[in-house]
Amino acid sequence: MLFSKIKNSAVLIAVVGIVLFSAKAIMVKLAYQYNVSSLHLLLFRMLFSLPFYLIILYFHKPKSTTNIKKQDYLWLLFFGFIGYYLASYFDFLGLQYIKAGLERIILFIYPTLVLLISRIFLKERISPKQIIAILITYFGVIITFSGELQYNGDHIFLGGFLIFLSALTYASYLVGSGWLIPKFGVLRFTSYAMIISSICVIIHYLILDRTSVFQYSYQVYLLGFMMAILSTLIPSFLVSLAIKKIGASNFSIIGSIGPISTIILAYIFLDERLTIMQLLGAVIVIIGITFVSLNKSKKNRKLVP
User: Fold this and answer.
1) Cβ distance 6 to 245 under 8 Å?
2) Would 104 disulfide with which of 2, 4, 166, 259, CB 3.0-4.6 Å?
3) Which of residues 216 and 60 earns the better pLDDT score?
4) Nearby residues of 277 by Cβ (< 8 Å), 6 or more positions away
5) Contact between 100 and 270 (Cβ < 8 Å)
């Protein structure tokens, strides 16, 4: 009885975390209605969340740092750069051109990219079942896009490509950071990565932009703050807690509600509507990714002695 309650509460925590993460695209699209640039919006998100990660880093002292080498900090800089700065910047740029629902569907393919990157650079084997799952996933993406091309043309290609780059950089971050997280710990690694990405965004702004960030209405700053807290800080801890309680394999199954929640939220707050074919494509993508995640978790269990 107690175990069931704990598991149910963990599932609820996972669902809330996923929905909050999914709401980011909605807030970005709402902010774009006030003619804010993608760089400024990303800057607001990072600046508002930065103090909280600095506080976490200050109070969460590591038990031991003997296993951490100098090159580990260099890799941390690199993965903070690509994993949160580049991935977020490509995502924000892409949302200027495509619907929030489509954005989430494309981002959701990142587990297939993790498999492909691991195969190319780490020589990890991809099973026949995983290959089939990858093909199913990309077939779903093609179906989803086919219905949008007749309305947006070149814009959908540009937006889709930018979101794909976001998924690719995030997948690269996941592949490369896997061996760093055990050394730094989840909280410290995430905090370091977010601080590094915040610094990258600030440098980007100072070098290439430097236009006033005080020219917008209060709604833009409010949405930036909400993104920082509701779609960055809080869900990052909720997801970590859920994975700790129910495991990564179970969480990956629950994670399939991400695209669904974004589509629903986009319908409610943005009046975005996907066609029947696009919804069918979204379902196919979700099935493919869930299949990839399940097969990956089974493979990992076989490797455990």
Assistant:
1) yes
2) 259
3) 216
4) 143, 144, 146, 147
5) yes
Name residue 195's amino acid: I
Give the Cα separation of 76 and 199 in Å (integer).
13
The mean predicted confidence, pLDDT, of the chain is 86
| Rg over CA atoms, the chain | 19
**Nearest of 50, 46, 69, 66 to residue 58 by alpha carbon:** 50
Q: How confident is the model at residue 298 (pLDDT cuts 50, 70, 90)?
A: low
Instruction: For residue 112, give Cα distances in angstroms to 20, 135, 197, 198, 286.
Output: 23, 9, 24, 28, 12
DSSP 233: I
Q: What is the pLDDT of residues 133-172, one digit of tens each?
A: 889 999 998 888 876 766 666 788 899 999 999 999 988 8
Cα–Cα dist 270/182, whole Å: 40
**How many C-beta atoms surround the C-beta of residue 300 within 10 A?**
11
At residue 98, the 3 state secondary structure works out as coil
Q: How do the domains of the chain map onto residue ranges? A: 2-303
Average pLDDT in the 64-71 region?
A: 80
What is the Cα–Cα distance from 141 to 138, expressed in whole angstroms? 5
End-to-end CA distance of the chain: 30
In the prediction, which pLDDT does 215 show? 92
- Distances from the Cα of 258 to the Cα of 14, 221, 262, angstroms: 11, 25, 6
Residue pair 200/81 in contact (Cβ under 8 Å)? The answer is yes
